[in-house]
UniProtKB/TrEMBL annotation:
Gene3D superfamilies: Probable inorganic polyphosphate/atp-NAD kinase, domain 2
Protein name: Sugar kinase
Keywords, comma-separated and alphabetical: Kinase, Transferase
Signal peptide: none
GO biological process, one term: NAD+ metabolic process
GO molecular function: NAD+ kinase activity
Length: 311
């Protein structure tokens, strides 16, 4: 494909100032609210100004290399990305992860719009790098990194993908009840839900759960578990890890199947026993969820598609 004919999709998000303006109708009312709380409204204005300038600079630079479409993150779930599109994400790590799960291998360039404000594991580039990086990505001379995704598939055919992790459990602070099946074993659980983590997500929520378990136990972890807690596992690993949060033993519930590995050949299956409050959500976004109520079966495995991050 000729570079100038390629579709380039620029993913953007609203700033805190824009969100506040929507909430309070005007900038001045938003200012009054923030300053009344004793916070610095100037920081909101500075962040907004820097981000908008980054968007303008990115659009101008990208137009040299193809047809640019700017897309707000709120439209991601319903947008159909062309299979040959180049995707540029301008924001924080969470925006990159949220974008990746709606793609099918299209290359993603993560750009940090405000390096003084944000760190970014998934944001290796600055706005000023876009011209050279875009050309290299289009000509295939830039390395990429494959990112494994998790998939939750319900018995009614619905699916949900995750780049970092899946949460399966209650909608609020009540116990999750379900039957868990993996590797020919099964148990009935009452817990605070499960986390199924990818390699990319293994240094986030998953790590904190392992750290909490170690602290409560007050003893050293086994070598392999300790290494997982400290280093996570590779972004392109061909497996996932699951861990159960706060499993409760009783006459009818067990606590042996609380940690393990999920593969395509050994998926994790869950049968919901939650009357009307069970959910599955991905990547910490509670609004991106599937209902998981009594009688529904969820199969969790390694997704067929993967993320493709330009380095």
């Amino acid at each position: 494909m000729e570079p100038l004919s390629q579709r380039i999709v620029l993913i953007v998000r609203k700033t805190r100032l824009e969100d506040l303006t929507v909430r309070f109708n005007t900038v001045e009312q938003a200012r009054f609210y923030i300053e009344h709380l004793g916070a610095d409204f100037g920081d909101y204005e500075a962040e907004h100004r820097i981000y908008q300038q980054a968007v303008l600079t990115a659009e101008t630079s990208l137009r040299r290399f193809g047809r640019v479409q700017k897309l707000d993150r709120s439209f991601l779930p319903n947008f159909l990305f062309p299979p040959d599109a180049l995707v540029v994400v301008l924001g924080q790590d969470g925006l990159v992860a949220n974008t990746l799960k709606y793609l099918s291998g299209q290359p993603v360039i993560g750009v940090n719009p405000d390096p003084a404000r944000w760190d970014g594991v998934l944001l290796p580039f600055k706005v000023g790098d876009l011209a050279s990086i875009t050309l290299a990505a289009q000509t295939g001379t830039r390395p990429t990194r494959s990112i494994t995704m998790a998939r939750a598939r319900l018995s009614d055919g619905q699916e949900l993908h995750a780049v970092n992790d899946l949460f399966i459990g209650p909608r609020s602070h009540v116990s999750a009840r379900y039957e868990i099946q993996i590797g020919g074993r099964s148990e009935t659980h009452s817990s605070s839900g499960l986390i199924v983590s990818t390699g990319l997500g293994s240094t986030g929520w998953f790590r904190s759960l392992l750290a909490g378990a170690a602290g409560i136990a007050g003893q050293s972890m086994r070598g392999s578990i300790k290494e997982l807690r400290e280093k996570g596992f590779p972004w392109d690993a061909d497996h996932l890890h699951f861990t159960v949060r706060e499993p409760f033993p009783s006459k009818t519930t067990q606590t042996d199947l609380v940690f393990g590995i999920v593969t395509r050949d050994q998926p994790l299956r869950l049968l919901s026993q939650m009357a009307g409050y069970g959910v599955i959500f991905s990547d910490g976004i509670e609004t991106d969820f599937l209902e998981f109520n009594s009688g529904m079966v969820a199969t969790i495995d390694v997704a067929q598609r993967h993320g493709n991050l330009v380095l």
